[in-house]
């Protein structure tokens, strides 16, 4: 019985520095997070969500100013057609530039709908696969929202 209490007592003492170390590590991580800018990524395959997404980014940039990091919109599926021979594309790109938002199109979708990058604005960026890009960005610490 005494041995059991002795073992429990020793284990309790050994766990105290670990707990303090874990708390210190969490505190350091929280401070580091506050010192870094948050990067955001929004994805959509729905064309009529693009304008509200840009507006959301603009509002966040206005509120957070230089504390806001990158803001990327990744467009996939049929929504990529919005930027191909569409008069609305110019206005969307203008709004995105003003809000410092990168618009990224999925090359897989462009190929599916037979849209050449040569026929699109130079302002646009591209990724091979929108879903993979989103997952990788989340692993890198981006805050992601898919609509």
TrEMBL record:
Entry superkingdom: Bacteria
KW Signal (keyword) present: yes
Q: Which keywords does UniProt give here?
A: Signal
The residue range of the signal peptide is 1-22
Q: Any idea what this protein is called?
A: Intracellular sulfur oxidation DsrE/DsrF family protein
Tell me the organism.
Mesonia hippocampi
């Amino acid at each position: 019985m005494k041995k059991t209490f002795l073992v429990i007592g020793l284990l309790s003492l050994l766990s105290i520095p670990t707990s303090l170390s874990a708390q210190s590590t969490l505190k350091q991580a929280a401070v580091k997070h506050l010192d870094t800018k948050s990067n955001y990524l929004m994805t959509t395959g729905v064309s009529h969500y693009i304008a509200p997404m840009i507006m959301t980014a603009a509002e966040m940039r206005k509120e957070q100013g230089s504390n806001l990091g990158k803001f990327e919109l990744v467009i996939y599926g049929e929504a990529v057609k919005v930027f191909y021979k569409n008069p609305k594309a110019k206005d969307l790109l203008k709004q995105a530039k003003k809000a410092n938002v990168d618009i990224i199109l999925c090359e897989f979708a462009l190929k599916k709908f037979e849209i050449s990058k040569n026929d699109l604005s130079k302002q646009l960026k591209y990724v091979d696969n929108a879903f993979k890009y989103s997952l990788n960005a989340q692993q890198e610490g981006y805050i992601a929202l898919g609509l």
